[in-house]
Structures are given as structure tokens and as C-alpha cells.
Amino acid sequence: MAAITLTLAACSSSGAGDDASSLTITDAWVKAAADGMTAAFGTIENSSDHDITITGATSEAAKTVELHEVVDNVMRPVDRGLAVPAGGFLTLEPGGYHLMFMGITAPFAAGDDVTVTLTLSDGSEVDLTAVAKDFAGADENYDGGMDEQMESASPEAST
Ligand SMILES: [Cu+2]
């Protein structure tokens, strides 16, 4: 017993933590789409004894991936991140939390695998693979600003 060293106590000094190893993602899927926006869902389990927060997401299959929630049938970005409770689950589902793909780079056809990388608050990352499915629901109300945001790159104001 006396031979235990204390070097492990310094493990946080090397950057990213290992929260990623505590997360297990199951039933991940993404709504098939020809272009534009779509959303991914699934169940994320946290086997650790502390809450783990997902702070961002990226995918080579889309220009950007945002963390979204749906409130009163309108979806919006979750700026505070998505918390996976200690020893519990976070469910991403139509009408609730989801990963929003903005500007997909190629069509998602049913059966395609789409990889997403989640960034966690401790700096670690976890990949998930979502399979594309045809799904008639999840037609959230997009509150108007998002398409305009994409068009607003043109610098000339027409006056
Ligand atoms: Cu959304």
C-alpha cells in the first residue's frame, strides 16, 4: 500500500481529460436529407460519477453542427452545452435535444453512416456514427433567422 505514488494526481496538466471514455452512445441516427439542414439523434450514457457537458460538435458531412433544443415547437441553439448527468442518460430525440447539421456537404441517403465528433467540456472528444433513416417527423419550426443567416454573406445592402 505504501508504494502508491501520487503522479496520477497531476494527470490533468496534459490538456484534454478523459470524459470521452465515460460516454457510450447508442441508437444514433440522422434524418435522411437531400441538402440543407438535418438533425441527428441518439442516447448518450454517462458511466462516470460526475456530469459531463457536450460543448460542441463537428462533422465533415456538414459546414457546421450545432447543439439544439426545441422549446414551444421552435428550435434554438443551446449555448450552455448539453449536460449528460452522472450515471445517467441524455436522450436526443425529435422534438427535443438534437445535433443540427447546417449545410450538409452531400445528400444523406437512408443507410448512410454519418460521423460526428462531440467536444466535451474537459477538452476531450468522442466520435459517434449515426445511420441515416427516412423519417417523416422532426419537421421543426425553423424560426426564420437561420436561412437568412446563410444568405447574409452578401455585403451589399440594397438601398
Ligand atoms: Cu435544430
Account of the protein in words:
The chain is mostly beta strands. It has a single domain (16-137), classed as Immunoglobulin-like (Sandwich). It is built from one helix and ten strands; from the N terminus they run E-E-E-E-E-E-E-E-E-E-H. It has one helix at 145-151, and strands spanning 23-31, 38-46, 52-58, 62-71, 74-77, 82-84, 89-92, 98-104, 113-120, 125-133. Strands 1, 2, 3, 4, 5, 6, 7, 8, 9 and 10 form a ten-stranded mixed sheet that branches. Residues 4-13 and 142-159 have low confidence and may be disordered. The structure holds copper (II) ion (CU).
Describe how the helices and strands are arranged:
Blueprint: E1 23-31, E2 38-46, E3 52-58, E4 62-71, E5 74-77, E6 82-84, E7 89-92, E8 98-104, E9 113-120, E10 125-133, H1 145-151
Parallel strand pairs: 1-10
Antiparallel strand pairs: 1-2, 2-7, 2-8, 3-6, 3-9, 4-5, 4-8, 9-10
Tags for this entry?
159 residues; mainly beta; Immunoglobulin-like; ten-stranded mixed sheet; 1 helix; 10 strands; binds copper (II) ion
Quick structural summary:
The chain is mainly beta and 159 residues long. The protein contains one helix and ten strands, in the order E-E-E-E-E-E-E-E-E-E-H. It has one helix spanning 145-151; strands at 23-31, 38-46, 52-58, 62-71, 74-77, 82-84, 89-92, 98-104, 113-120, 125-133.
